[in-house]
Amino acid sequence: MRVGLVCAHAAPPPSGDGTVVGTYQHIARVAAELAGRGHDVRVYTRRDDPETTESDLVDGYRVERAPVGPIAPIPTAELVPYVPAFGQWLADRWSGDWTPEVVHGHYWVGGLAAAQAVRETDIPVVQTFHSLGMEQLRHLGPQYDGPGTRIPLERALTRAVDMAVAQCNDEVDELTRMGLQRSAVAMVPTGVDIDRFHPDGEAAPRDQRPRILSVGGLSRGHGQDDLIRAMRLVGDAELVIAGGPPVEGLAHHAEARRLRELAERIGVGEQVHLVGAVPHEQMATWYRSADVVACTPRYSSAGRVSLEAMACGVPVVGYAMGGIADAVVDEVTGKLVPPGDVRTLGMTLRRMLTDNAGRFAYGHAAVDRVRCSYTWERTAAALERLYERVVGRRKPVEAA
């Protein structure tokens, strides 16, 4: 099958924070898995680096970069004016000797370009939003900083696609509230690289105190301040926060300074350590060094951090929302607590750290859960079946 994957910014984030996997890495792995299953896959993105070529072959699939907009990384809000040109470039590209049988848009800007490119064809469009503006606004409130055009454009995009892919059950509900029929929403969770994330291997250095690890970008929406407040109830343990800019840039990072000031103010400054960005290929060593991984973002559609931690055999204490609630089986692979309930969070972490046998059991169950339900092979197989279904719906019935 000829598959076109479209994302307007399939490149590492300008912040340089490699700790958290982005949309670009998700697409790259999906493309490689589909190519490995025998499909002819092409990834279409915007050229944002003068050092890259317009087309090259990577891991069995082809990457084509559109000369649209400035050749530099730009924020999502600034990409919107270039969507028509990107869509037209795709349409021109697909009018030649290679036309996709199915197009899969990623994130809302990529989806808009994909939908525009095929609007005068019978090529079906599948869409993965990765996050939804309306849901982020609901959870983040005043901390939501998305462009004002995002929510109405996402709502319009739901009317232009054949099938939407949700990464968690909360996202399924949100898409149906936006007007999609439930039959037009497929739940396909993200995958985990179990060759990289597994219990056996090196662990990052640590002292004798129990370690709680938090992974995520440094912003108020990621919930590190909740964890710092919860440390007053945890006792003698360290909280390691991985994410944000490289460690040498933390001194000048506003959120890093705010978190350190908060820790000092409530008396846990000596227990809280910010280590900055960690290359994603080194994250497994940090997961293995932890007794518990805490996942407390206000919004998380994929729950990727919880899955990577579980794959490394580490129990998770997380907020019962989004992809975290789907990934973590309460009292089996970890503990779920109500979002924003700092007291329950602190007491749950304290009990988890003192229960050696419980952590051991949770860790083993966590590894089994990831290997059974969250491999990239399963993700690619589910997408393959979905593509076949939407292509079958669009193909005209031959005359008898």
Automatic annotation (TrEMBL):
Keyword Lipoprotein among UniProt keywords: no
Name by which UniProt lists this protein: Glycosyltransferase family 1 protein
Transferase among keywords: yes
Residues covered by the Glycosyl transferase family domain: 205-357
MF term (GO), any: glycosyltransferase activity
GO biological process, one term: carbohydrate derivative biosynthetic process
Keywords on record: Glycosyltransferase, Transferase
Residues in Glycosyltransferase subfamily 4-like N-terminal domain copies: 25-196
